[in-house]
Design brief:
Blueprint (H helix, E strand, L loop, with lengths): L4 H37 L4 H17 L5 H16 L1
Helix pairs in contact: 1-2, 2-3
């Protein structure tokens, strides 16, 4: 454990930020899985779920959770699945 006050505070903040990032990444994965399940089932709300998944990807990119190229690649793959 850290002895210096600033190091203790950074360690505490790292834990909080890790929890927040993990929750946001889990929400991203969940939205993508919901969309893919809807497409596989041929559901009518696939378009709305695509918009939600795309927004989740954009949010994860803007927060720095995923790289710009990964965000674009993921959205492209989802759009391709939506068209099929």
């Amino acid at each position: 454990m850290a002895n210096i006050k600033s190091a203790i505070k950074r360690a505490e903040l790292n834990i909080i930020q890790n929890e927040r990032n993990s929750a946001q990444k889990a929400a991203l994965r969940t939205s993508i899985k919901k969309f893919e399940a809807a497409v596989a089932a041929g559901s009518d709300d696939a378009q709305a779920l695509y918009v939600a998944a795309s927004a989740a990807i954009d949010k994860a990119h803007s927060k720095g959770l995923i790289h710009k190229n990964k965000a674009n690649r993921d959205k492209s793959r989802l759009a391709k699945k939506l068209v099929k």
